[in-house]
Write a structure and sequence with these properties.
2 copies of one chain form a homodimer. By secondary structure, chain A is an alpha/beta fold. Chain A has 2 domains: 11-80, Arc Repressor Mutant, subunit A (Orthogonal Bundle); 87-199, NAD(P)-binding Rossmann-like Domain (Rossmann fold). Chain A is built from 9 helices and 9 strands. Chain A has helices at residues 11-29, 37-44, 48-56, 70-80, 96-103, 106-109, 140-147, 158-169, 197-215, and strands at 34-35, 68-69, 87-92, 112-119, 128-129, 132-136, 151-154, 175-178, 191-194. A 7-stranded mixed sheet of chain A has the order 5-6-4-3-7-8-9. In chain A, strands 1-2 form a two-stranded antiparallel ribbon. In chain A, a hairpin with a 2-residue loop joins strand 5 and strand 6 (132-136). Chain A is globular, with a radius of gyration of 20 Å. At the A-B interface, helix 1, helix 5 and helix 9 of A face helix 1, helix 5 and helix 9 of B.
Chain lengths: 216, 216
């Protein structure tokens, strides 16, 4: 299977994969080893045909009438998501949000190893969060050169986000997970994934008013 | 314009509206009052035709050759996003993530008024975050009845998320902004917007490996 038929994955399918990954892990934890697209769909809230269509992108795992092999599917989706590798990560901005991410243990289990946090606030520099040090921002360049960093998580205020990105652009960072409400200009080859909380909240406020709006 | 032609907005368009909203606000702050779809597209990173198509969903604001009236468009998108109203919000879970959200001043400006945070941890109960109290979780029911809450922000660990939702299901909460990595079962009429950070990070790790994967 590995790597076949992978040329046409849309970003919409990619964004559904982590959800499959999570549900398949839950099934394995419950010792469920085989599941039909119908049952899986009911669990996740997708239609069975959506599921068959999504999973067919990766060469198809189900056997007609037998359902999916949960373990095999979980492993293959893990591989597609790049979870067969380890990633060195750092967090830039050690305020509440940066600390919240540092405290979340789930990422470590998936292979994302947090090496350090960085900040400019002297009250934060020198702290340890789950044993991980908060370093002075002026050590960033040196640290990246020395340790190698795959993913930088930007948890800094909007006004500092591009300045930080300019620093990252000059180093061998491969990806930026950006929580600042700003669209970053990155060097070629660096991939940015934005988590824009305001956009999510505004989507919710839209949905709260949708009925009224559409009938208006 | 208000409310016309609004029956066919896809969720994909809705999710782009907050971005328009943010860029139009920036333009107004810079005293730019008129912009072409081409210029706006260049700014946001969408094609001009994408922009025309999106904004046509709401009845169309541009005049051929004159571009868009930034202020009018900003106001109309604000209205569509429900930002002409105010929302009472609470945060359930006053750990780092809950505090990060409470500390973010941007939401208040958009009309989301934080009334209280709730937690079960005695070390957090009684604290104030930007003047907003952290209350004991056992006061939740009473508080909602007394003050009215439009949106509850769930920042609790996964294992508590459904239990909290069950409480909210019995009250007149209209929306849940859910940060727990769990799909919540809500009562009819309650709208959930999920922010699943793991899904976002896994999308990034996919994208970091996409080239290799597709050429494999």
């Amino acid at each position: 299977m590995g790597g076949k038929n992978l040329s046409n994955i849309s970003i919409a399918v990619v964004r559904r994969l982590p959800k499959y990954h999570r549900y398949l892990k839950d099934l394995l934890d419950k010792e469920v080893y085989r599941i039909s697209s119908k049952e899986l769909g009911k669990l996740i809230g997708f239609t069975a045909s959506q599921i068959r269509q999504d999973l067919n992108c990766f060469g198809g795992f189900g056997q007609q009438g037998y359902g999916y092999n949960v373990e095999e599917l979980y492993k293959e989706i893990s591989r597609i998501l790049g979870l067969n590798k380890n990633y060195n990560i750092i967090i830039i901005g050690a305020g509440n949000l940066g600390q919240a991410i540092a405290n979340y243990t789930g990422f470590g289990k998936l292979g994302f190893e947090l090496l350090a946090l960085f900040d400019i606030d002297p009250r934060l520099i020198g702290m340890k969060i789950k044993g991980i040090p908060v370093l002075n921002m002026d050590k960033l360049d040196e640290f990246i050169s020395e340790h190698g960093v795959d993913i930088a998580i930007v948890c800094a205020p909007k006004d500092f986000a591009q300045e930080i990105t300019d620093k990252l652009n000059k180093k061998n960072v491969r990806g930026i997970w950006n929580f600042a409400p700003a669209d970053l200009n990155v060097a070629e080859g660096i991939i940015v994934e934005n988590v824009n909380l305001s956009e999510s909240l505004l989507t919710l406020s839209y949905l709260l008013n949708e009925k009224e709006l559409l009938s208006g």
